[in-house]
Design brief:
2 copies of one chain form a homodimer. By secondary structure, chain A is mostly helical. Chain A has 13 helices and 4 strands. Chain A folds into 2 domains: about 160 residues, Cytochrome c-like domain (Cytochrome Bc1 Complex, Chain D, domain 2, Orthogonal Bundle), CATH 1.10.760.10; about 150 residues, Cytochrome c-like domain (Cytochrome Bc1 Complex, Chain D, domain 2). A two-stranded antiparallel sheet of chain A has the order 1-2. The radius of gyration of chain A is 22 Å and the shape is globular. Chain A starts with a helix and ends in a 28-residue tail after the last helix. Chains A, B: Keywords: Heme, Iron, Metal-binding, Oxidoreductase, Periplasm, Signal. Chains A, B: One of its GO terms (cellular component) is periplasmic space. Chains A, B: Pfam families: CCP_MauG, Cytochrom_C.
Chain lengths: ~350, ~350
C-alpha cells in the first residue's frame, strides 16, 4: 500500500517534470498558446483604428450569415466557412455561384483562429481579414457580387443601415469596404482555445499521456518548423521542399510568385478535412505522412503518424456560442437575386 | 383640462369596445391565436407516440443545419428554409443540387409555424412534417441524397449515433425515417407568436390603430375565407376561383389532382417574399391585390391593399432563439460528397 503510494507520487512528480520539459520544448519550437486573458488577446487581435465592439460583432455576424450578400441570395460566408463544421465546408474544392468549383481546385480554409494568421488565402495575398473578406464576395465562382450590388442590397434594408449607424456613428458610409471590414471584426472573435492551451498554460493534466507523447513526436519530427505561432500555421512557407506532393496535379495552384504557400492552422484540424490546398487527402494520418515526405523529407511511420494525430485531437477547441441571427427583411428596393 | 380628460377616457373606452368587437369578428372568421400556454400549445403540436423532448429537439436542430445530409455536403434544410430569413430563401423558385431550379418553379415555403398546417407541400401531399422532411432530402434538384446515403453518413459519425441513443434509447435504429422525423420534431418548435396573438389574447393595445383598421379590411374583404386557423393558412383550397392568376404561366404547377393548393401562412409574410407558389410577385401589396382578383373576384384598391399590408406587419413574430450548432466531425467512414 505504502509502496504503491510512493510509486504513484513519483510517477506524478515525473509526469509533472516531463510536462514542464515538454512545455518548454513546445515554446522553443515557436508554438504559442491562445492568451488566456481577454486583455492580452485583444492586444493581438484588436485594431485601435477600428476597435472591436459588441455592435460591430453582432452586425458582422449578421452579414457573415446573410446569403443576400451573394448575387443569387443563396451563398453566405458561412456556406464555405461553416461555423458548424469547424469553420470550413468539408469538400475538396470550394463550390459557389452556378455550382462552379474553385478554378484552381482550392480547398476552403477554416475561419476559426484565422485572426492569428500572418496572411490570408492559400497564397497569402491578403494581409488581414478585412481585405480577405472582399475577395470571395466578389469572386465569380464564389458569391459573384459586384461591390455595387452588395452596397445596394445592404443600403436598401433600413434596419441594416441603422445598425451601421449604431456601430460607427450617424455619418457612416455603408460602402463595400465598411461592410466587409465589419464581417472581419466578427471573424476576429472566432477564437477556439483548447486543452492544448490549458497544457501550455500550466495544466499538466490537460493532455492525456498519449497526447503528450504525440506532441513530443510532432516536435521531434520537425512539424513545428512550419506549424508554429498561436495558430500552429498561418505563415507563408515554401512548399514541396523535399519531394513532390503526390496529388500535385490536382488543380494548378503553385503558391505565390515565389512558390510560397500559407501553412494551414492545425487548430480544429480533425474537423476540417479534406486536407492540403487542393483537399485531395481525406485521412489526417495520410496527410501527416505526406507532409513528412513533401516538407521534411522524412518517412513518418504509421505508428508515429498515429501518435501525432492523437496529439492533434487536443487542438480541437471550444467554439464561441453563436446565436443564429434573425436578419432584417428585404424591401421593395432591394435588388433581386440573379442566377446567371 | 377636465374636458380633455373626459374625452381621452371616452376615446380609450371606445377603443377598447372596438377592439373587443374586432377580436370577436376575427375569431368568427376562423382565425386563431397561437396558444399562450406551453401546455395548450403542446396539445396541438405534440404527438404522444413520439413526444417532443429537449434531446430530440437539439439533435433535430443539428440535422436541420447539417449540409452533410445532402449528396454534395453543401445543402441543408436551412439552405431553402433559412431560419435567419423568415424560414424561407428569398428567391422565386428553390435552387438545389447542381444549381437546379425546382422543375415546377415552386417557391420554398417558410418552415416557421408549419406545424400548424393541415398539409405540407404546395399540393398538400404530405400530412405532416415528418413525412414532408423526407421529400427535399431525396429530391434530385434539392439535396439529392438517397435514403441509404443519409443513413450511412449519420451512422458513420459516432457522436450522432450517441445522440440518437440518448434521445430514443439504446436500441434505436438510426434509419432515414428516424432521422427525418427527428428533424420534424425540431421544426415543430419553430413557432413565432406575434403582436397579433397578444391582441387576440386580450391586449387591445398590441396593435396600432392602423393595424386594427387593416385587420378589419382584411376580414371584410374575405381574405380569412382561406387564410384562417392558427397559421392564417396551411389548408388546401381551390385556386383561381374567380380569375386566372396573372403569372399562371410561370412554371407548370396546377395544384393537386383536384386543383387544390395549400394556402401559405401569413405569419411572417413580410419576411418571406417573393409570393405565390411560383414566387413571381415580389411586392406584398401587389400580392394582396392579385389575391383579391384571383380568389375573391374583387378589386382591392391600392389604399385597401396598403391597409391590409399594414395589418400583415403585425404577424411578424418573435423567433425562437437558436444557438447555431457545432456538428460532430465526419470520420474516415463517412461517405464522401459528390457533385454530379
Amino acid at each position: 500500500m505504502k509502496t504503491t503510494k510512493i510509486v504513484s507520487t513519483l510517477l506524478l512528480v515525473s509526469s509533472f517534470v516531463c510536462a514542464d520539459a515538454l512545455v518548454e520544448k513546445v515554446k522553443k519550437s515557436g508554438i504559442k498558446a491562445i492568451p488566456q486573458s481577454q486583455h492580452e488577446l485583444l492586444t493581438i487581435i484588436d485594431d485601435k483604428k477600428d476597435p472591436i465592439t459588441s455592435e460591430k460583432v453582432e452586425l458582422g455576424k449578421k452579414l457573415y450569415f446573410d446569403p443576400r450578400l451573394s448575387r443569387s441570395n443563396l451563398i453566405s460566408c458561412n456556406t464555405c466557412h461553416n461555423l458548424a463544421l469547424g469553420g470550413a465546408d468539408g469538400i475538396s474544392a470550394a463550390i459557389g455561384h452556378k455550382w462552379t468549383a474553385n478554378p484552381h481546385h482550392l480547398n476552403s480554409p477554416t475561419v476559426y483562429n484565422s485572426v492569428f494568421f500572418d496572411a490570408q488565402f492559400w497564397d497569402g495575398r491578403s494581409a488581414h481579414l478585412a481585405d480577405q473578406a472582399q475577395g470571395p464576395v466578389q469572386a465569380g465562382p464564389e458569391m459573384a457580387s459586384p461591390k455595387e450590388l452588395v452596397e445596394q442590397r445592404v443600403n436598401s434594408i433600413p434596419a441594416y443601415v441603422e445598425e451601421f449607424k449604431k456601430a460607427y456613428g450617424d455619418k457612416v458610409d455603408v460602402n463595400f469596404e465598411r461592410i466587409t471590414s465589419t464581417i472581419a471584426i466578427f471573424e476576429k472573435t472566432l477564437v477556439t482555445p483548447s486543452r492544448f492551451d490549458q497544457f501550455l498554460n500550466g495544466n499538466a493534466n490537460a493532455l492525456t499521456k498519449a497526447e503528450k507523447k504525440g506532441l513530443n513526436t510532432f516536435i521531434d519530427k520537425g512539424c513545428a518548423s512550419c506549424h508554429n505561432g498561436i495558430a500552429l500555421g498561418g505563415t507563408l512557407q515554401p512548399f514541396e521542399i523535399a519531394a513532390k506532393y503526390k496529388f500535385s496535379e490536382v488543380g494548378d495552384f503553385k503558391g505565390n510568385a515565389n512558390g510560397m504557400v500559407k501553412t494551414p492552422t492545425l487548430r480544429n484540424i480533425t474537423e476540417t478535412g479534406p486536407y492540403f490546398h487542393n483537399g485531395a487527402i481525406w485521412s489526417l494520418t495520410e496527410a501527416v505522412k505526406e507532409m513528412g515526405s513533401v516538407q521534411l523529407g522524412i518517412n513518418i511511420s504509421d505508428k508515429e503518424a498515429g501518435e501525432i494525430v492523437t496529439f492533434l485531437n487536443s487542438l480541437t477547441g471550444e467554439k464561441p456560442t453563436i446565436t443564429y441571427p434573425i436578419l432584417p427583411a428585404s424591401t421593395d428596393k432591394t435588388p433581386k437575386p440573379s442566377f446567371d
